[in-house]
Amino acid sequence: MRAKFLALGLLLGIVIGGISGFDLAGLGYIREITRSITTTETFFQTLYVTSTTSLLPPKWLYPNQQVIPYLDSGKNVGQIKAVEGTVVKTDRSGSTAIFLYFHDPYKGYFVAVIYSSDISKFRFAPEIFYFGKEVRVTGKIQLYQGAPGIVVRDPSQIEVAYMGFNYP
Questions:
Q1: How far apart are alpha carbons 88 and 67 in whole angstroms?
Q2: Which is more confidently placed, 53 or 166?
Q3: How far apart are CA 19 and CA 154, in angstroms?
């Protein structure tokens, strides 16, 4: 209610000030109106930031999880880790395996391998679905043809940024 009177006072002050040269700033009206406008702007900025950030899903389900970048996976061979990167290339090797590559050229860099015995656990084509997505692959890092890699036996080993495990 007070803001309405202050806004009305500002409007009136502009009209009167413009006509007679009367200055309302000396009476403190301008200061109150400015404070009211600033508070309103702050309220709407806070509302906007709160509403837009709460509408987005979190990037990762477990943001505090110990994660290593795919480039550091070679330093962790033999350990169970979550490896993070973007799948930049995929390949389906006939009916034997699907490869998710994190670097192009891929030789010598981290790879996630899904063998044919585990492909049926995926309700989608992994080589299509994961392509271009930022993911975290969790499992034991092993050497696969001289490069670090994780054998993926279940879709729950691969989390997609902003999607979690909400697959098609």
A1: 19
A2: 166
A3: 78
Extents of the domains making up the chain:
2-55, 67-160
The encoded tokens of residue 159 equal 């989390």
* 31-57 mean pLDDT: 57
Q: What pLDDT score was predicted for residue 44?
A: 52
Copy the structure tokens of residue 68: 């290593």
Rounded to an integer, what distance in angstroms lies between the CA atom of residue 121 and that of residue 60?
Answer: 22
Instruction: Tell me the whole-structure pTM to 2 decimals.
Output: 0.67
Tokens at residue 168, please? 């098609």
Residue 144 main-chain phi, psi, to 5 deg: -120, 110
Q: How far apart are CA 166 and CA 99, in angstroms?
A: 21
Q: Give residue-wise pLDDT tens across range 74-120.
A: 999 999 999 999 999 999 998 899 999 999 999 999 999 999 999 99
Radius of gyration of the chain (CA): 29
Work out whether strand 97-101 and strand 111-115 pair parallel, antiparallel, or are unpaired. antiparallel
Mean pLDDT of the chain: 81
Q: Report the topology of domain 67-160.
A: OB fold (Dihydrolipoamide Acetyltransferase, E2P) (2.40.50)
Is there a contact between 158 and 130 (Cβ–Cβ < 8 Å)? yes
**Closest to 4 measured CA to CA, from 50, 46, 42, 40:** 40
